[in-house]
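TL;DR need structure tokens for one chain.
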Amino acid sequence: MGTPIVYEIAEKPITSVLIAICTGVWVYIQKAGLGYGDVGISYEDVVRGKQYWRVITSSFSHISFLHLIFNMSALWSVGVVEQLGHAGMGKIYYLKNTLLLVILSLVLVLVFYHFLIHHLKFERYWRVTAVGYSCVIFGWMTILSQKQAGSKIQVLGFLSLPASLAPFESLVFTYIIVPQASFLGHLSGIIVGYLISWSVFAEISSYWAITYTSWLLIALVVSVERTTSYHIPFLQTELSVESPNLPTVRLLSDEDPPQARTPPPPSLASGIDAV
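>> reply
TL;DR here they are.
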């Protein structure tokens, strides 16, 4: 008999929380009737609209139920990293590099979009919108392929892939199941995965990872406050007189009520990428 699911959850707490978050977000999206343009990431929304919060919402959002099931199954498989403390990985390694994969893979996607738009003149990439956790999953598959070349990774519970080939085999399999899968998104995850496996970011300690994450969360909160109709209690952003492009963040007092803001017009997506 296999290990009871309760024990597996206890052995993969971070993975279990991530799956719960992605599933909860999917339920909320379905109930709220949200779409790709509401939670996805596009070059236009991030660069022109300064909606930096989409780097996070796009990673943890799935519109299609099939997309969610495929990604969460793959995430459960790569979550074995949490159990590999004896191999130089483990929970801290998993958490720190998951944060790096979430941020850097989508930043790299935007870099690819920038090149396609401004150098190759593919204007459609201004509005191509991507959602999904696959960037991170492909990154972890790549890391495992380098750390455990002789092992195998289970995908969807029945597909056993050699770890060394898993990122590329999964890329092909994903295109068969999800025709709209994002090649650039998956490629970005693979590239960042290689950088992590080559210890490019090894000098980033847990302390600095927490510090960078804290500042990033503050920046994302400010972005939500400035670019959406959502009001965050006790926070107001203003444009500085000395530097109109830089926001000033301050706490609100009882005598200083928040001013109503008009949300930016929605962006028209000309393409959808499931990542």
